[in-house]
Amino acid sequence: MFDWEEMSLFGSMIKLRWLRDNILPLLEQPTEEQLHAHVRAYLLGLIGGVLMLDKTGNKVHLMYLSLLTNLRRTRKYSWGSACLAMLYREMCRATKVGSKTIGGCASLLMS
């Protein structure tokens, strides 16, 4: 198991490195519950590391876990729209005086 004290919670955010380091490998014949937990952890890392990056790029907000409770429903969400909205918000924040970095999906901005 993992050490809860090393979990690296920052308010309601968690470090992506901790998440990656503590995803347990799947067994050869995982139960449905084990498989779903693994998929949720992977998707949370994908959301925080690619789609909805914060300015530091090393944390993910735990509010996204509530969107991953029903994995069948997650494909119906408009992830592209949410990613674009996050990028627009981060671009607005980047225009403020003193701002040095930008969050959001930079690859979307480049394309």
Automatic annotation (TrEMBL):
<dbReference type="Pfam" id="PF10536">
    <property type="entry name" value="PMD"/>
</dbReference>
<protein>
    <submittedName>
        <fullName>Serine/threonine protein phosphatase 7 long form isogeny</fullName>
    </submittedName>
</protein>
<dbReference type="InterPro" id="IPR019557">
    <property type="entry name" value="AminoTfrase-like_pln_mobile"/>
</dbReference>
<dbReference type="InterPro" id="IPR044824">
    <property type="entry name" value="MAIN-like"/>
</dbReference>
<feature type="domain" description="Aminotransferase-like plant mobile">
    <location>
        <begin position="9"/>
        <end position="109"/>
    </location>
</feature>
<dbReference type="GO" id="GO:0010073">
    <property type="term" value="P:meristem maintenance"/>
</dbReference>
